[in-house]
Amino acid sequence: MSPRPVGGYHDEQYVLRNKLGATSRHELAALEVPEVQDRELDLLLGDVDGLIGLRPSDRVRRIHAYLFQDVYEWAGEYRLDGIAKHPDEPFLPPDLIPSRMERFDDHLRDDPGIRTEPLDFLTQQFAVLNYVHPFMEGNGRTQREFWREYAEEHGVVLDWRNAPTAENHHAARRSMLGDLRPLRELFEKVIQPTDRP
Known about the structure:
- By secondary structure, the protein is mainly α.
- The chain is built from 8 helices and 2 strands; from the N terminus they run H-H-H-H-H-H-E-H-H-E.
- Helix 5 packs across helix 8.
- The chain is globular, with a radius of gyration of 17 Å.
- About 4% of the residues have low confidence.
């Protein structure tokens, strides 16, 4: 089923087709949050099978599908429409998403930077995935969970509670404009010290 919304992306009446029967943005947000929070807890507790060993792109899709399975029929599917948080700052065109996610897989496989320079690596790669923005909705929540798990597997602990939502949104937006400083400052708070030498 197409996730195409009712109305244009910047239209106040814009509402993604959903399983919850919501017909307004406010109603959808109110109904979606508790559903997704329960699924986030499952992921945090490690209660979701089938994630270990997946390619990064497949894991991103699986996490999105798990988080939003109760909300959207198209959970886990790459978007088919062009979107932008602001009209003059579009995300990657949808026809380029599959090939760009393959490059993402290659980069994460070949670059050990998460172990040696986690701050630089996470800043750069978070900005890349933010620009790709593979889904119509839920990219931020999916990305935070993906990077939490990916980092943990490489000995790096991320605590997103140290990143207020407004600061996270600001850093992501600035990264779209080529300014990675706010995102780097965000990760300085999110990356936790480890006891290992």
